[in-house]
Amino acid sequence: MISKISEVNYYIKTNKFKKIAIIAGKKSFGKINGKKIIKEIIHNTKTDDVKYFFKTNNFPEIKELKRLISFFENFQPNLILAIGGGSVIDYAKIANIKDIGNNLVKKIHGKLHIGKKKIAKMIAIPTTAGSGAEVTSGAVIYINKIKYSIDNRIIIPDKFFLLPKIIMKNKKNLKASSGFDAISQSIESIISVKSNNTSLLFARKSLNISLKNYLSFLKNPNFYNSSNMSIAAMLAGKAINISKTTAPHAVSYPFTSHFNISHGHAVSLTLEKFLKFNYENQKKSITNFNLDKRYKILFKIFGVKNINELNFKIKDLKYQANLIDNFKQLKIDINRHYPKILNEINVKRLKNNPIELNKSDIKFILLNNYSDE
Ligand SMILES: [Fe+2]
């Protein structure tokens, strides 16, 4: 599952790609010494034209996506290589759909079908261990700060390479946030309405690996824990590709778009609160599986006996990873902003939550967080 740069080079050599479009994050590409990596990747290949597109926005939004779509239209690449975090990979996945630029907004809103053809083959090289975007059929895009997503099998990258040496170099706060995304995606997947035996297998495996490696990856990153976190993130991606995510994800997006809180951190804000809410209301479960059994799986993986111990462990993980979940400390006036947040919540994701939620439940969860600390 773990690759070397030489394997990317071999893939490009054997497929004889002539024109390669590279999509990367402006800041992160410099930090990982991206130019050197690309040089190695295209060394001795038939490639004679390489063009770069750098994203600058902190989360994927439509204006930048439109620029990427025109970039692809002008360049007509044979290969799209996305080397970056979830946003970079998501941008490339969407822009790679043929003719997506015609009626783009209607297509994102799901009012028009997207085509079944792609512009080029796509390789994803994640530079963070988190989103699992390299294996998922979903891609996030914000329009006017509201989160939408395109979900279609055709956008799954044709190939992905996990290169732990790149991931190791990330700053601690980026590793903390993206790693927590992987953890949360697996946890949410295990109790999601849409989960099945296959997603459960991926999610359990992912969580077993991430919990053993997350904190050491933050504190003493090495090849071993970085490899494991890359694998855990990819497996979590495979899990949510089937099960989708639940309430903590649905509620997270406005925190990213309005308050610039990175995705994994935003998800961590409410994770254990929703876990408790779901657990305490399990008599009202809308799942076709036994929710209590799923919680027992979570307890076992975390090595705890009950919901309070589980939440304590999650709280402690956040504390050690320096992921602040107190709105006051984050300078978010939740009493003022909660109506806007409630308004923008992604209803689709809420439907995957094992317990039906209404806006007053979410309000309670958000405000309780504010007052109890
Ligand atoms: Fe996520």
Task: Give a verbal description of the structure.
- There is one protein chain.
- With 373 residues, the chain is of the alpha/beta class.
- The chain has two domains: 5-165, Rossmann fold, CATH 3.40.50; 172-371, Dehydroquinate synthase-like, alpha domain, CATH 1.20.1090.10.
- The protein contains 18 helices and seven strands.
- The chain has helices at 5-15, 26-31, 34-42, 62-75, 86-95, 104-108, 164-168, 172-191, 197-219, 223-243, 247-259, 263-268, 271-280, 291-302, 307-320, 334-344, 347-350, 359-371, and strands at 19-25, 49-55, 79-84, 121-126, 138-143, 146-151, 159-160.
- The strands form two sheets. A five-stranded parallel sheet has the order 2-1-3-4-7. The protein has a two-stranded antiparallel ribbon with strand order 5-6.
- A hairpin with a 2-residue loop joins strand 5 (138-143) and strand 6 (146-151).
- Helix 14 packs across helix 15 and helix 16 runs antiparallel to helix 18 (359-371).
- The longest helix has 23 residues, at 197-219.
- The protein is globular, with a radius of gyration of 20 Å.
- 51% of the residues are buried.
- The mean pLDDT is 95.
- Fe (ii) ion (FE2) binds next to helix 8 and helix 12.
